[in-house]
Amino acid sequence: MQATAFAGANVSSKRVAVASGRRCSHVVRAAVAVPAQFKAVKPVGDRVLVKVDQEERASTGGVLLPTVAQTKQTAGSIVAAGDVSLVKSGDRVVYSKYAGTDVQVAGDEHVLLKEEDVIGVLPSGDKISTMKPLGDRVLIKCAEAEKKTAGGVLLASDSGDKPNFGTVVAVGEGKKAEDGAQVKPNVAVGATVMYSKYSGTEYEEEDVQYIVVRESDILAALA
């Protein structure tokens, strides 16, 4: 696939799917380069400017990865904020993978996001387990997949159904009602809940699976 060059923009490609054989599909996103004479970018409305973490360019074994194999970062630090209420400058955040506008400021990668697209704040380094989810989002520690069938047959790691339930680790402050009041999600920390199978954003930390879902994606409490 051939990328089209845009004046004043840095064009990068990212692999999103691999077709049969050796063909692969790419999505092209243009990072708008802010002209050198402008030294600051001030987000307007409910937007924030996030300085994106550097992409991982080597495998755990130290092998340099080709561009198409690198994972697009979805974490960084807020360097400027507009009219927002849930986050502030200096916060280290994670955000939705396909959200925002990529911007290059003084050669560094940034992204302009709506506050709504910020999934959570990381108050303790990079630990997903300490994430403070925003809005009506809920952080869940996923249940482990069954390793054996009911008859005792050992399952391959990719053959079992992935569980769609887990334990609530943290709950956001909720969404604003029409009168401006904050309505907290009706979910308690420590509860075991079932959530929609294809919802949320998944993370892995020290072989533990986590997922952040909206309150509306929680189907039931289990007891």
From TrEMBL:
InterPro entries: Chaperonin_GroES, Chaperonin_GroES_sf, Chaprnonin_Cpn10_CS, GroES-like_sf. GO terms for cellular component: chloroplast; mitochondrion. Pfam families: Cpn10. PROSITE patterns: CHAPERONINS_CPN10. Coiled coil: none annotated. Keywords: Chaperone. HAMAP family: CH10. Belongs to the GroES chaperonin family. This is 20 kDa chaperonin, chloroplastic. One of its GO terms (molecular function) is unfolded protein binding. The keyword Chaperone applies.
